[in-house]
Write a structure and sequence with these properties.
The chain is an alpha+beta fold. 42% of the residues lie in helices and 17% in strands. It has 14 helices and ten strands. Strands 1, 2, 3, 4, 5, 6 and 7 form a seven-stranded mixed beta sheet that branches. The protein has a three-stranded antiparallel beta sheet with strand order 8-10-9. A hairpin with a 4-residue loop joins β6 and β7. α10 packs antiparallel against α12 and α12 crosses α14. The longest helix has 21 residues. The N and C termini lie far apart (118 Å).
Length: 385
């Protein structure tokens, strides 16, 4: 029949011959004309297509298969005959993308760390800025480390010798009254675990509002570069940073973690005077709050640390550890390692903040105050005279 298409010519080719090339562009199509070339990339052992259009250069690898060949049919409408022609294909992209990839591969591995330090320096307050400055100096001057160590040893020796004759006032307070001074306020009539503690009774609301900027910086900074000692607190921060979607509650937990880091420093502090001691390497706002709220009110000299300060810090740390956990639970072993305190002592202080070990486990769980048994008479929390 006359309308049947006839194959007129079949073009043969050899494996290494240059063939007609079907070119596709990664982003859109070529608006004007350009010069086409084939390049042998000998170092990489492959051939590439090159199109130069004005000041723009496009390159891409030729798709060459060892298993099959690609053909197209060219039809002559007047004669209704076709030619079968072998072709090759290439996907081209602007050369600028390859330049960007090379720049990206040359980017130093510590660029993210440098960026986080810059954020701390600009937005983290005076304490964070001082930390970054000191860290940069230590990188280039070893003498700074030696000087800091000498000053620390000298300061420690002075603190050990001063005010040794200071004694506590003779305060006769009952067990219940003393507990009220070291334990965060809680709802004794609570029927739900989330109602037992109000965060604003643990940390003042005014301070929480002032920690917004620090929480944002901490969230955007790699965990291992943060000036936080405890691996437990770093793991808690890491879980928050790993979330795809963060909430207001997550940033509240970050603020609690920053405060817990300072409380850990207070618990491990050996000096009686908190005024000259560094409690937080992140912000002075928390340091000032701890010096005011955790100093012993019955000692004449302000900002003095006593057993009262340590016990109050322990109870508050345990409560915050429960609050940042969705199940209101925390591992006794983790607390013992973090606070360098025996497990038995952790259990005792957990008891007075309404947390008891789960059956046959080392996990402390928050309980409703109405279901927590009274302390044994053998362990009474009273001010030591």
């Amino acid at each position: 029949m006359e309308d049947k298409t006839q194959i007129d010519i079949i073009c043969n080719h050899k494996r290494n011959d240059q063939l007609p090339t079907i070119v596709k562009f990664q982003n859109g199509s070529l608006g004007g004309s350009g010069d086409f070339s084939i390049i042998d990339n000998r170092p990489e052992g492959k051939r590439q297509a090159l199109v130069v259009a004005g000041k723009q250069t496009y390159t891409g690898d030729l798709k060459d298969s060892q298993e099959f060949d690609t053909y197209i049919c060219l039809r002559n409408k007047s004669t209704n005959k076709v030619q079968i022609v072998p072709v090759q294909q290439a996907l081209l992209s602007n050369h600028i993308y390859q330049q960007l990839e090379r720049k990206k591969s040359k980017t130093p591995m510590l660029s993210r760390e440098h960026a986080s330090k810059k954020l701390l320096k600009e937005f983290g307050g005076r304490k964070a800025s001082r930390y970054v400055d000191n860290h940069e100096k230590m990188l280039v001057n070893v003498d700074v480390v030696r000087q800091d160590l000498d000053e620390t040893v000298k300061s420690s020796a002075q603190n050990e010798n001063e005010d040794e004759d200071e004694t506590l006032a003779d305060v006769s307070t009952s067990n219940e009254d003393y507990l009220a001074t070291i334990v965060p306020k809680f709802d004794k009539e609570a029927t739900n675990l989330d109602e037992v503690y109000d965060v604003e009774d643990v940390i003042p609301s005014a301070l929480l509002e002032r920690l917004d900027e620090e929480a944002k910086v901490i969230f955007s900074t790699p965990v291992q570069t943060l000036p936080i000692k405890s691996e437990y607190l770093k793991e808690c921060l890491g879980r928050i940073q790993a979330k795809t979607i963060t909430s207001k509650q997550d940033f509240l937990h970050i603020k609690l973690i920053i405060y817990m880091d300072a409380l850990q420093s207070l618990i491990s502090l050996r000096s009686r005077q908190m005024q000259r001691s560094e409690l937080s390497r992140i912000t002075e706002k928390i340091e000032n709050d701890i010096r005011r709220r955790f100093a012993d009110p019955n000692v004449a000299k302000r900002c003095t640390r006593t057993n009262f300060s340590t016990e109050k810090a322990l109870t508050h740390f345990i409560v915050m550890a429960l609050l940042i956990n969705e199940k209101r639970e925390v591992d006794i072993n983790v607390l013992s390692r973090t606070l360098a305190t025996s497990k038995e002592r952790i259990k005792q202080y957990a008891h007075i903040v309404n947390a008891l070990p789960k059956s046959r486990t080392e996990i402390l769980a928050l309980r409703l105050p109405s279901k927590v048994p009274a302390l044994k008479a053998a362990r009474r929390f009273q001010r030591k005279k």
